[in-house]
Amino acid sequence: MDEITPIPDPEEPINTRFKTLRELIDFVTGVVPGEHPQLEENSSITDRLPYPFLGIVGQKEMKLSLLLGLINPAIGGILLIGPRGTGKTTAVRSLLDLLPSVERSTCFYGCLNEDIETIGMDAVCPECARKFGMGEALTSMDKVRLVELPLNAGIDDVVGGREEEPGLDRYKIKKGILNQADKNILYIDEVNLLSQQIIDVILDASAQGFYNIRRGFHSASHNSRFVLIGSMNPEEGFLRPQILDRFGLRVLVKGLTNPQERLLAYQQVQAYNRNPRLFINQMLPQTNQVRSEIEKAQKMLKETNISADVAKKGISIIRSLQIDSLRAEITWFEAARALAASDDRTEVTMDDLNVVASMALRMRRSKFMDDYFSHQDLEEKELKNSLA
Ligand SMILES: [Zn+2]
Fold first, then answer.
1. Comparing C-alpha atoms, which of 160, 161, 192 is closest to residue 176?
2. Exactly one of 327, 345, 362, 365 is catalytic; which is it?
3. Interhelix angle for 350-361 vs 308-320, to 10°?
4. Residue 273 CB-half CA count within 13 A
5. Per the domain annotation, does 126 fall within a domain?
6. Using one digit for the tens of pLDDT, what is the confidence trace for 153-166?
7. 120 falls within a domain
8. For residue 85, is it within any domain?
9. Residue 322 pLDDT grade (very low, low, confident, very high; cuts 50, 70, 90)
């Protein structure tokens, strides 16, 4: 494939030839599954003006997985695995311009109308009860945020805790990063270097959608519904298989091998470094289109189903691969639903399953469990023989 994503001409009218997000995904990712430009991971630049998603050359699987994660958080998190300099962090930060809106409580305690509707006035704080009585909204639409876990975060930063109020003989409860990540994206770079305790807490909170915190006499429950994105360089240490299994999608990010792609990647990065604002603006029409297509696909997702026939075929493939974890089909089917929704369809096809199969199913088999079960089978047989 020689076709390469061109840098859009700012003079050109807004591109309208993409009818669905999937067509756009194919367009921006159809450059040969490959890798990433050797982007400078210069946080001082990317913090202000992130490199645009549409400027990333190649890396089809990484880009697809990130878009599917935005459309359907039920995918259960994404782990990007690859060496340094392959643009994992750049890609995650580039999502900033694509993030859709979400309905969010405007209250510190996270009170919602639905709390009152299902439990009653006691379920919300006095201020929100007053607002509700006056017919005022408890929520507002807000852009999804990208929350990054700092490398040196301690357990109190993650879950929150008591904080002494200076000059006063009392404490206030400080919210943790997990709660800030609620309804947002939580990005953990070098997730394999986190302490056991912190990774367990984050994965539990992510799976349950809430977490409990107890400090002395204080205890509280906070919401923590977020899309978890982790990245790791396997040269710097491995994740335990149990932890690998808890990331919905596992994406292998390698360096670009196609010389033409590498050249384009180099040129794009040069253009971005020369004038980040101009480079971003050149892609703005398409960036805006992707964002609105993501929102459209999110709505479509509610009506997108997988038929019993297609699901049965998927499950028999999982069985033939000897994958035990039930997370395999949850992630696989949810990713396929997101892909079908991005293509404006309400039915998942085998083709959808095929496209997302590798990222959902790789690294699910445990050699330890294989050995364990075959050893147990042997023992069962010996037992039966000796009892016969
Ligand atoms: Zn409230």
1. 160
2. 327
3. 40
4. 12
5. yes
6. 898 899 887 777 77
7. yes
8. no
9. confident
